[in-house]
Amino acid sequence: FHKEDTALVLTHICFAFAALFLGGVAGLLQGLVRGGTITLPAGIGYYQLLTAHGVFMALVFTTFFIIGFLYSAVAKTLGGELQPVARNLGWIGFGLMSIGTIVATMMILLDKATVLYTFYAPMQASVDFYIALVLIVVGSWVSGAGIFYQYRYWKKHHKGKLSPLLSFMSVAVMLLWIIATLGVAIEVLFQLIPWSLGWVDEVNVLLSRTLFWYFGHPLVYFWLLPAYMCWYVCIPKIIGGKVFSDALARFSFVLFLLFSIPVGFHHQLMEPGISPFWKYLQVVLTFMVVIPSLMTAFSLFASFEMNGRARGSKGLFGWVKKLPWKDVRFFAPFMGMLIFIPAGAGGLINASNQMNAVIHNTLWVTGHFHLTVATSVALTFFGMTYWLIPSMMGRELTPGMNKLGIIQTILWCIGMFFMSGSMHTVGLLGSPRRTAYTTYSDHPDAVGWMPYHVAMAVGGTILFAAVILMVVNILLMFKLPKGYTEYPVGEVADAAQPVPRLFERWGLWVGLLVLLIVVAYTVPVIDMLNNTTPGSKGYVTW
Ligand code: HAS
């Protein structure tokens, strides 16, 4: 890697892990508060802490890590180094995003933005917080422009050639992000900023939540897809095999692009003011977006099995023994995949209207996203970090560092087992999410939840130890001996079908996506603006 590319990528990665550390501190404290173990000192509020935890972990850690990784992916696969224009755009994007993050953090610390990581109305923050969000979003668009520039530059100089799979995926992820963030940009610019400045007295709460979830659901795929990039492309190389099918991988990313945006209503199933028909339509589309995940599961099993059989494994599951269990580059993402099976099943439960009525706003939902983003995605990002840093810095991933990585992964899984397991269980018993410690005047139900809340705190403490170990491992990685660590990019299996050129017709996919968004959102949004849907009146202003 070019030195300047390494600097750009690793600055993003280090920023991401600094956020993980701060988010981890907030997470530990809030777990202990909720379990009734401690009370917070110095007037710090539970919700202030919860906001910091969500913003650092879910928004800052993920976005910085992903953008850093995507830059490494396009540098690696599109010519071996970044074009100066792409690199400069990357730095400008980073600058805007980091200034935005610092301002947002200050506002949260000053208790002027205790609005949780979802920040929709009617909770109101200081205008500085919203401006900080604008900086973060605009910065990410500039970074996206750098990725598109690198891709277009390569295409221009390789006329008629198929782009490398990893770069195709990077473009898809960034397109998804930019189209999704348009919703939240509209919300912040046209609703939240004028409202927080006092220019308007009212805000349409339902519209604000709708615009947020228009962004909020594809946000989860913005987190997931870079992990899928690792599962599809890097893992086959790490296990010594090949990518099962380039065409299938591209197809699944195209499906994600199409179906992950017009589905936000599945976060609003219990909300009045949106007619059941539109909720139903978006739930149907939600089940469509499950298909590419099932295709991914199929493709991964196929890669593992093909590789095992090529190495002489026998029987139905003999290939399992051929996997490199002691290699953290495989083990951490693999645990992520494994845990994604129950995590995804939980998602299917959430998306079903009747079952959503049981779990909505309970700790079950918190359990769901700690398995998905905080385990499947986070463990994959951790596993990637163990090769990304040494390979970019020209250092060798030593057996000692590998071992520390395995210990860190196991700690994470144990902590998450206790934390997310008890969240799921106590959620089914009715314990609400986003609630500070209370026994509701010693109501027997609430008292019955307490042992689970204590188990959550125990899990959270183990997870905090795992965060610390991860941060220590990162610091140690900068001291690894000089040498070579591979940046793993898998080749495609010989038997795979050729890739239809149609997949790179971005205009077609974006056009179809716009059509789906228009179909799924136009009528309900007009209803919200006119207060015409039964139930929306009275809910609509604050
Ligand atoms: Fe979700 C709420 C539905 C996936 C994150 N979700 C959330 C929230 C977050 C989140 C953060 O319908 C809370 C938001 C808030 O603050 O209110 N979710 C789904 C569905 C899926 C799904 C249908 N969610 C995710 C992913 C996330 C994420 C991914 C983050 C990265 N979710 C919902 C709904 C709600 C919700 C409702 C609202 C609930 C409410 O009422 O508030 C699907 O995409 C899941 C599909 C996944 C699968 C699994 C495929 C398995 C694979 C692994 C294969 C393993 C192998 C290894 C090969 C079908 C790919 C095995 C090898 C061996 C040897 C055994």
From TrEMBL:
Pfam families registered for this protein in UniProt: COX1
Keyword match Transmembrane helix: yes
Major localization class: membrane
Gene3D superfamilies for the chain: Cytochrome c oxidase-like, subunit I domain
Cross-referenced InterPro entries: Ba3-like_Oxidase_I, Cyt_c_oxase-like_su1_dom, Cyt_c_oxase-like_su1_sf, Cyt_C_Oxase_1, Cyt_c_Oxase_su1_BS
Domain Cytochrome oxidase subunit I profile: 10-527
UniProt keyword annotation of Transport present: yes
Residue spans crossing the bilayer: 8-29, 49-71, 91-110, 130-151, 171-193, 213-235, 247-265, 277-304, 330-349, 369-389, 410-430, 450-476, 506-526
Topology in membrane: Multi-pass membrane protein
Compartments in which it is found: Membrane
Key words, A-Z: Electron transport, Heme, Iron, Membrane, Metal-binding, Respiratory chain, Transmembrane, Transmembrane helix, Transport
Taxonomic superkingdom: Bacteria
Family named by the database record: Belongs to the heme-copper respiratory oxidase family.
Protein name: B(O/a)3-type cytochrome-c oxidase subunit 1
Organism name: Marinicrinis lubricantis
